[in-house]
Structure formats: structure tokens, C-alpha cells
Amino acid sequence: MLNEKELLDKYWDIIKEEINVKEVDIYQSDKPITKIYKPLWGQLSAKFGKDTWQIIANWKQWNVREVDGWIEVFDNAWHTWKLEESDYEVVYEWLDGTDTTVEWNTIVKLDLEITDDLKREWTAREISRFLNQMRKDADFSVDARVNMHYQSDSEDMKNIVKEFSEFLKEEALIIDISEGSTDSDTRCDTFESENGNIKFWLTVA
To answer: 187 with 201: CB under 8 angstroms?
Structure first.
């Protein structure tokens, strides 16, 4: 059976694509995270009646184990009581709850910091969608290869186009990318963003 790290290595690309994240790694906590079951005493009393005090006594001695999605409380003579999910709640000691979720004994924490790299990549993806909408508005065929010209007063926008030129070529079926306007019969439109505006021209190659 594969461990957590081996599973991540095997399905890394699928996980990234499905939940739209850049990196996937094993979560490391500064303190050891302890899983604790907290009984819902009112629920137990209604369900187990006079046996409730025995369950409580053995629970306090940590005579508790997890079995296939439910937990079992046992005494020293191995009398057992089966508790379902509605009979208790689960908490994780030393777990930072910020941007964290737990499912099936798996803890997932998201790092939601928006770095400069992520901002540039997001802008590049927005440009890709914009260019494909330009293609659609121009009635270019689905497989038509195009040349792209661009012009902008924003150095940030020009640098994003240069940095992600290969990505844009692949996503929008672009053969060549050139800086500067063109007089060719073409589709022209302006992409606007907080980094500045950039004007694009698309011509069928």
C-alpha cells in the first residue's frame, strides 16, 4: 500500500488540475497534532441508558479505538460499545483551523497567500481567455493558427506577455508574437487590468 507521500507523487498532476493549486506537499505542523474524540453525553444517555456511566468511565481511561468509520469503547473484560458519528465529535489538538479541513483522517491545509508569481500567472490566464474570445468574435475557425501583435505603455503587461509567450501560443493557437501594431486585416481589441492596458491584434497566419 502506498503511503501519503507516494500517493501525492503519483497523483500530483491530477490533484493540481482538479483543485487549481500550484504545489502539493505533506503538511508539516510545528506541534504534534492529536486526534481527540469528544462524546456527546446527552446523545449517549438517550442511546445507551444505564450503560452510559460505564462508557464514560472507560472513555476517561482512553479505552477507545477507531474501527471502519466508527469508534468502539471497551472495558478491561472486553465488553464493547459501538459509537456512531452522531454520538461524538472529533477535534484535533494543536491544529490551526485557518484554511484547514479534515476528512477521513486526512488533514488538508491551503496556503492562500497570493504571491507576485501567482498574480502574473493569473493575468496570463486571463489574457489567454481574452485572446480566445477575440478568436471567437472574429469567427476564426477552431484550428486556425494566428499571428499576434501587442502594444502597451505598461512594462508589467509587456513583461507578462514575454514571460508567458509559450503558454499563450499553446492556449490560443498562436504562431508568432510580435511587439508593435500592425496594419494587416486583423481583429483588434484592448485587454484591461490593474497592471495596465494592452492592445492585441490577431491575424490569420
So the answer is: yes
* CATH of 116-204 among 3.30.2320, 2.20.28, 1.20.120, 1.10.10: 3.30.2320
Q: pLDDT above 70 covers what percent of the chain?
A: 76
pLDDT of 25 reads 64
Q: 97-115 burial, b for 16+ CB within 10 Å, e for fewer?
A: eeeeebeeeeeebeeeeee
The domain locations on the chain are 4-109, 116-204
Residue 160: which of 201, 102, 99, 119 has the closest Cα? Answer: 119
Cell 492585441 belongs to residue: 200
More confident residue, 182 or 75: 75
pLDDT of 198 reads 95
CA distance 12 to 22: 10
Rounded Cα–Cα distance for residues 74 and 57 (Å): 10
Q: Check whether 126 has a pLDDT greater than 60.
A: yes
